[in-house]
Sequence to fold (835 residues):
Amino acid sequence: MPETYPAPANAAEGVAMMRVNVKILRFDPEKDRKAHWETYPVEAQAGDRVLDVINHVKWYLDPSLTFRRSCGHGICGSDAMLINGRNRLACKTLLRDVAKDGGTITVEPIRGLKVEKDLLVDMEPFFDSYRAIMPYFINESPPPPAERLQSPEQADRMAHSSNCILCACCTTSCPIFWVNGSYLGPASIVQAHRFIFDSRDQATPQRLNIMNQNTGVWRCRTAYNCTEACPRDIPITTIIEEVKRAVMYQQA
Amino acid sequence: MHHRYDVLVVGAGGAGLMAALYAAKGNVSVACISKLYPTRSHTGAAQGGIGAALGNVAEDHWEWHMFDTVKGGDYLTDQDAAEIFSKDIIEAVYELEHMGLPFSRTPEGKIAQRKFGGHTREFGKAAVERSCYAQDRTGHMILQTLYQQNVKAGTTFYNEFHVTDLIIENGRCCGVVAYHLASGEIHTFHAKAVILAAGGYGRVYKITSNALTLTGDLMSIYYRKGLPLEDMEFYQFHPTGLAKLGILVTEGIRGEGGILRNADGERFMERYAPTIKDLAPRDIVSRSIITEIREGRGVGRDKDAVHIDLTHLPREVIEGKLAEITDLARTYLGQDPVKDLVAVQPTAHYAMGGIPTDINGLCFADGNGTNVEGLYAAGEQACVSLHGANRLGTNSLGDLIVFGRRAGIFAAEYARQAAYPEMPENPERDSVEMLSRLKNASGKDNSAVIRKELQESMMNNVGIFRNGPDMEKQVEIIKELKDRYKNVGVSDPSIRYNSELIEAMELGFMLDCAEAATASALNRQESRGAHDREDYPERDDQNWLKHTMAYKDLNQNDHVLIGYKEVALKGYTRAFEPKPRVY
Fold:
């Protein structure tokens, strides 16, 4: 290891740097019986992403640090983490918004899914819930030679719910999901909404039936955690309420 | 662990998911393996749209699209591929809509279309609305929709499996070897046909729009077999990445009327492309921006960016049709496109080159038409070559759909009549060796440091403008980095989820891609499309209207052999003769 470390990603001369202590909840199943905190001092720019900071830890301080990441700008949904006690994407959170110079940020895995190693959790139960809502377009009538028509207003009804990137920030911030893992959770309801409110889709009754089961929308207690956690600004609680109304009146 | 499928798809972005869907329709067993979860693939980062001559907003024809694609590619585009593409993409976009893709709509309820760089009516007369879009998250919607359709079809996925080797025996592909991140186990996948669709290698550059995972793994593995990579000197720099970060800002913002301005506030593209101005193809706009910066008209602290100006557009257009980039500019730069000028600079974006294939996706083993039996490739990984020397905006999404589908169809057709090829004894031997060498390496070199040096040097020496001396220097730098890579250390001994091991392995793949790209660029003594040689400023059709094929010399370390392949200068019914490229 070199004595002096290169500065993180977008550091440049003449830019104010800040010092932060990055406190990360570590767990290695091959040697730890339980999770423990490790703190890494890092010098970084105020405008750096938290992802830049933890990449810096991995690349230059402790290469065993494990987490998922890919696109680095909030579209792939890989790097959901609990940062300063709130679910966020590490690549969409700027250091200056979560720390002061000389301060500390805490980074933990998202809650309610089994921790496999450090910040990396088992995503299979999350995707099982996703698959349970029939997350695919259904219209068995023969398609026209060109597109099926849909008005801009009809398209607008699913503009929010189709924006979901399946990062799990919402579901793993939901207190009901923490207590009862069989609850399909906010992300799956958002996905169901995307099809229920699609004027072209023909499987609304089946989907409403899934939403009406005891693992569905009625578990929601409108805690609003999901809405606050969503890195895509999807009004999730409102969407869940729309699905509840659709279930009640059996129509979208 | 040993698995067996008729058709195996590597990669779960747009091309891989389309290939998997279509292979399954061919009544064969199919599995798709990805080093990510499918929905994390970088197709999701595409923003502006998918080009198809639907004519929903203005008159359009496939011939115009074909012409634009060929001219955009600076006549290195294979015209048979361009003709198939321009026709097939029309019906393929309707198919995406039938799969439920939530496109933005015209007032009549049709798929909405907007202008995009290099897409014109009547063979170059003026910009035309050809890009079919879903706000500015078209790639996201394509990725989600294709994943949904694969869930519906019951496709088998192996997520977080890193391919470490391709098994090719006597010119016939027999399967792949992969490392399972969760367990640390090596799996072999025996297959009648394999489709490679694992994306590009943009991470060899410092400033890039590419995901951290785009490290050219499969291109490198192909190249390590002594098989060729085609046209690696053609690498696209997207003109507008967020300053310093490289995060993509869609060309759709210029399609909607956004204007590039220099430090003087001048709309400088008027000087470089008088007819279509800000909607010139990407290679031209990127060069124009760098020229402005070099001549002292850049903006920002380091004067290394220019501004994109949307402030004259209505708030509803910006926050509605361009919601994604509005959020990105606000989040990362604290600049609000509704009232602020946004600082942008060119960012490494897309490999025109890659694994050479015929129009059905079947891989070429040389420049003379010899195939690798049972091996297919599609998407950015492949070079069909639709994009020639410069890809037009929106044609990457189209490429994934049209050629991903073709690869799926033809791989399934082949697999239906083929027997399982005989696997060599101990197919995982080389992979086990590579991984244990990396894991047991006690070297002092840090892969992050080597990677950073590679990224910075590639940016400086094989960037938008290139010249012989810089690239000769880069050849030496890559040799030195490869030497140090042999001595790289992996300190994490764990078996499960060893991401340090993965990053070290990916660095090896990146070094190969950089080596092939640099050698190809140094060899081509002309300027064409995205390849701009300061020491050879003119296009030279006499000597260079041909594809480059770069081979790793298996008998001599760090040596690259260069061959060539003919350009298809005619389509099936149309042909466009090379002409000077002005816009």
Notes: Chain B has a mean pLDDT of 97. Chain B touches chain A through 65 residues (CB under 8 Å).
